[in-house]
Design goal:
The complex is a heterodimer of chains A (882) and B (152). Chain A is an alpha/beta fold and 882 residues long. Chain B has one domain (2-151): Sandwich (Jelly Rolls). In chain B, the strands form two sheets. A four-stranded antiparallel beta sheet of chain B has the order 1-8-3-6. Chain B has a four-stranded antiparallel beta sheet with strand order 2-7-4-5, with no helix packed on it. The mean pLDDT of chain B is 84. Classes of the chains: A alpha/beta (882), B alpha+beta (152).
Chain lengths: 882, 152
């Protein structure tokens, strides 16, 4: 990256900068005339002499002469404005493109950092640099050349105008500039240094806050919050001190500037006044000079501001660029460029290390001398005491780290010189913590197959043109023009074609690592678009019918209460009973029902409004009583209370007022809040006895009214339940059940799952259910999955691309024992005949691998079969005995 | 309301006798009401228990395994508690309980019970008191039994 901001600006925008500059220079003559015309108007047209005037060889009467001059003035105003407009938007666009390029470059470099950097540098430091800190640089870069020239040009033009009008006054106007030019930057330098300090302080602050969030468990467990508070307070104090100092100095500079700017008019009035009285200067000239001077202070200020910005921007650019230039960065050519033909890895390939060493920095050198080689048709275990260098060896083998000594090569080619794509597409890596994205399970699986856009996205001509325009703009800023919306999936690598074939393959791989049951369960809770899955809706309806016939079979007490348009479902909420459908969007969401005018009108007509408010009041009273002295953060609250902890005091107050004034004495807003509570009630579950038979009957009336009177505008906001139709908004499970699981039946849930599994297999939609599971959102870093599920998913991602080499690095340490055994078997079976290098957490797991390499204190000390090493009585045997 | 009925049942259990009514209401509200059909097993001998049940309605029998097959040792009915030890410590169920007619019970899970105890330490004290009394009775019984053995 360019070392200085000017280097960056000129390298990437020299041509555009000159275009802007040319535009700027052309604007100066216009500006000069713009100042000239008013003087002619005052001195000539208004001089009192009413004789005709000559203008460009044409004789004009006085009035037309004045009119022509005024119109000229107007045209000049417009021309001047047009120049400004074009120069400013041009600068803005230029700056934004440069900023885009800068951000993109920084991010692109971030992706090329060697891994150890991330141990030292926190997210909190890096992210603000790319996002907020470079933001002001954009403005500056657009201004880099044109702004100083433009402002200086204006200044010179005005100064020239004044000097020509009246040399004395002109000199007076600029007399103080040299002093300002000397003093202000000197003062400013100190302010800049402080600003730089502030940036660092804030960066560290955000890093600290990030750290507090990631260690929050320890903070609670060790009662460490107050120490952290003290730390943050200290840091905020530092920022305050710096900030205050900046203010003092900054406003002093401002004061000085203003004072000097006001000093000039003093000269005008005194010297100019004297000259006018003496008759040596026309009053028109004095007025013009005064007007010009007023206009002069603006560019002068801009120039000073530019100077300050420039100093600031240079510092910021230096700081950021330094941070983004760590030693050991991966060569751009190895990562970004698409190689013509990649070296192929196959079962005959050989990965070899000779006296390989790896040092993260001067102090830590986890691998000192590793010598071993692996044929990519065999399965090799790497074992050793923890901290002995085996994990780093795993990173080296996966080419995630580069040797700093000795040799590491694949089929005779140094690993460090191979493009990242060689391993990235033909090898796979599973580390101790699965790297999962905040996306669906399926997206996470496919990440291992998406290396470059392979097939353009299906798009109409209009959309294609839009994309092309975007790509062209991206190229102008040196950004990637690869279409994110294209199909990037390398189907050949997975050995499955697009569409259903790929989906089946994904389900297969997930099943292989033992995620099939999880996928099925997640799929049941998932929502599938019936339009995208032809025939699915019909089969789900078949399953629904099959389930119903089983429920109707005599003898079995049904664990499900089916939805019935004419009956109240005591296992569903009041809201569900009222809508008898699934809300679409926010209009009829439970939280908004009480405030919805149509819902209120329906309830009123069914005579329920007051009664439900009464029920709400009772619910509120019960909740206030039950949860009064429960800690607001407690799980009991979140799980059982109808009222959020924060709202409890409000409801206590409402209940108290209702006791005094009665329901009728409450404000409309309070009554609305009460009305919101009963909608969540499920009579069978909550057993509060508040929804009696009479209320139920009236709710059925309300249900009927709701359906009949639903305004056209609201039709799209609810999808009514219909025994003969698929509810697109509801989960697969809800669609099959078409009812609610009865509360309070022993083993009810287990019986329902058995029934579900039964009918799902009968109509043959298990696969569709699993497919729905692929759409499950895994949450930030996979937080909605368990540790075991996350690791299994990482293995599935690795297996999906059918790698020639799989490197596993301590990946099953956090996995349950049974799952671990299953994973070992499944992964090794799937990788039969291809290379596996597995860094193991325990030596006894090496049994069954074709070879075992023992690593101790950064050295490979033994290499051989499991039994042979066990017999040998060397370091491996000792480790095994521990 | 049904909740009150459950609170009354809880109050009848010695373990919960001394606990404030409002706490019992919370316990009842957060617990699940479960229905067992005749012949359903409420708990099975040898299983690790995760909940206690309070019978609100219906009858059940207590069976223990013997070499000669299951032996019926007791019958349970309204306001009897089943498997209360399980909510205090992890032990396998010491007997099987089978519903002889339809049984409605209040299921108090170990997890929930501990959360309540966490929130209200006073509850723990009351339970300790009750358990100490039981221990005292058991010790007295043991002493008596030994004395009888020695005498016999």
């Amino acid at each position: 990256m360019e070392k200085t901001i000017y280097g960056f600006v000129f390298r990437h925008s020299l041509r555009q900068q000159f275009v802007l500059l040319a535009l700027t220079v052309v604007s100066f003559p216009v500006l000069y005339v713009f100042y000239e015309v008013p003087k002619i108007i005052i001195d000539d047209a208004l001089s009192g002499d009413k004789s005709p005037r000559m203008l460009f060889g044409v004789e004009l009467e006085l009035y037309p002469y004045l009119a022509v001059l005024c119109l000229t003035f107007l045209v000049l105003v417009l021309a001047n404005g047009a120049f400004k407009f074009n120069i400013n938007t041009g600068k803005g666009r230029l700056g934004e493109r440069l900023l885009r390029r800068l951000r993109y470059n920084l991010y692109s470099r971030l992706l090329r950092f060697p891994l150890p950097v991330f141990k030292r540098v926190g997210q909190g430091e890096i992210i603000p640099m790319v996002t907020q800190e470079v933001e002001p640089l954009g403005g500056f870069m657009g201004d880099a050349l044109a702004q100083p020239v433009y402002q200086f040009g204006i200044l010179v033009t005005i100064a020239a105008f004044m000097l020509i009008q009246e040399p004395f006054l002109g000199l007076a106007a600029i007399a103080l500039y040299p002093f300002q030019m000397y003093a202000i930057p000197k003062l400013q330098r100190k302010v800049n240094a402080l600003a730089k300090q502030r940036v660092q302080y804030v960066r560290r602050l955000s890093d600290r806050i990030g750290e507090s969030i990631s260690t929050i468990e320890a903070v609670h467990a060790d009662d460490g919050s107050n120490r952290l508070r003290a730390d943050i307070a200290e840091r905020l104090g530092g920022i305050y001190d710096v900030r205050y100092e900046i203010f003092r100095r900054k406003f002093f500079i401002k004061f000085l500037n203003n004072f000097l700017a006001q000093l000039t008019p003093f000269f005008f009035y005194s010297i100019g006044g004297y000259l006018v009285i003496e008759g040596q200067l026309s009053i028109g000239a004095l007025v013009a000079v005064l007007a010009a001077h007023k206009d002069m202070s603006a560019p002068w200020k801009e120039l000073l501001a530019y100077y300050q910005q420039q100093a600031d921007a240079r510092i910021k650019y230096d700081q950021v660029v330094q941070q983004f230039d760590p030693p050991g960065m991966i060569e751009e050519s190895l990562q970004v460029e698409e190689a013509e033909a990649l070296p192929q890895i196959g079962p005959d390939s050989r990965l070899a290390f000779e006296n390989a060493a790896y040092a993260e920095d001067e102090i830590s050198q986890p691998v000192r001398s590793a010598t071993f080689s692996v044929g990519l048709g065999e399965h090799v275990a790497i074992v050793g005491p923890s901290g002995g260098g085996k994990e780093e060896l795993g990173l080296l083998a996966a080419r995630l780290a580069t040797v700093t000594g000795g040799r590491a090569h694949l089929d005779g080619r140094a690993l460090a010189e191979l493009p990242q794509a060689v391993f990235g597409r033909q090898a796979a890596y599973v580390g101790p913590n699965a790297s999962l994205f905040n996306a669906s399970l399926g997206e996470n699986l496919l990440f291992g197959l998406r290396h470059r856009p392979l097939r353009p996205a299906d798009a109409g001509p209009e959309e294609a043109a839009r994309r092309e325009a975007r790509a062209a703009e991206a190229r102008r800023s040196g950004n990637s023009d690869a279409d994110f919306g294209a199909d990037w999936v390398d189907y050949d690598a997975a050995g499955a074609g697009p569409g259903q074939e790929m989906v089946r393959r994904m389900v297969e791989v997930l099943a292989a690592v033992g995620l099939d049951e999880d996928l099925y369960t997640l799929g049941l809770r998932g929502v599938l678009d019936p339009e995208a899955h032809a025939g699915l809706a019909e089969r789900v309806l078949e399953a629904r019918a099959a389930l119903r016939s089983r429920l109707d079979a005599p003898g079995a007490a049904a664990p499900i209460e089916p939805f019935d348009a004419d009956a109240y479902n005591v296992n569903a909420t009041v809201a569900e009973n009222l809508l008898f459908g699934a809300p679409i969007g926010p209009a009829f969401a439970v939280a908004n029902l009480a405030g919805h005018p149509f819902v209120r009108s329906v309830l009123a007509e069914a005579g329920l409004l007051d009664r439900l408010e009464g029920v709400g009041l009772q619910v509120a009273k019960i909740m206030v009583e039950l949860f009064a002295d429960i800690d607001p953060g407690h799980e009991l609250f979140q799980q059982y209370s109808f009222i959020e902890a924060d709202d409890l005091p409000d409801f206590r107050a409402i209940a108290a007022r209702a006791d005094r004034l009665g329901l009728a004495g409450l404000e409309a807003e309070e009554r609305e809040r009460l009305l919101g509570l009963p909608f969540l009630l499920i009579p069978e579950r909550h057993r509060l006895g508040l929804i009696d038979d009479e209320v139920r009957a009236d709710l059925l009336t309300a249900r009927r009214l709701f359906r009949e009177r639903l305004p056209e505008a609201d039709r799209a906001s609810v999808e009514f339940f219909d025994a003969g139709r698929y509810t697109a908004r509801a989960s697969l499970q809800d669609n099959i059940l078409f009812g609610r699981i009865r509360h309070g039946q022993a083993h009810g849930a287990a019986r329902v799952s058995a029934l579900l599994a039964d009918v799902i297999d009968e109509v043959g939609i298990r696969e569709a259910v699993m497919e729905a599971g692929l759409a499950f959102e895994v949450g930030i870093a996979g937080s909605r999955l368990t540790q075991t599920q996350r690791q299994k998913l990482a293995f599935a991602r690795a297996l999906l691309k059918r790698p020639a080499l799989l490197v596993v690095n301590m990946a099953t340490a956090g996995v349950e024992r049974v799952a671990r055994e299953m994973l070992f078997l499944a992964v090794r079976t799937a990788m039969e005949g291809r290379g596996v290098i597995w860094v193991l957490e325990a030596p006894e797991l090496a049994e069954g691998f074709s070879r075992t390499v023992m690593v101790e204190e950064g050295r490979t000390v033994e290499d051989g079969g499991y039994e042979a090493l066990k017999e040998a009585g060397g370091p491996f045997a000792r480790l095994l005995r521990q | 309301m049904a909740l009150n009925e459950e609170v009354e049942a809880l109050r009848a259990i010695p373990l919960f006798q001394r606990i404030e009514a409002s706490r019992l209401r919370l316990l009842a509200f957060t617990s699940e009401r479960v229905r067992f059909e005749p012949d359903d097993l409420v708990v099975r001998e040898g299983d690790i228990g995760d909940a206690a049940y309070i019978v609100l309605e219906g009858r059940a029998e207590v069976l223990v395994k013997t070499p000669q097959g299951p032996l019926r040792v007791a019958e349970l009915g309204r306001n009897d508690i089943i498997g209360e030890i399980a909510i205090l410590i992890d032990v396998p169920r010491t007997a099987t309980v089978r519903a002889t007619e339809a049984v409605t019970a209040l299921r108090i899970s170990k997890e929930l019970f501990f959360r309540l105890v966490e929130e209200f330490p006073q509850m723990a004290v009351e339970i300790m008191r009750e358990l100490a009394q039981r221990l005292d009775r058991t010790t007295a019984d043991l002493r008596e039994a030994r004395a009888q053995l020695a005498a016999g």
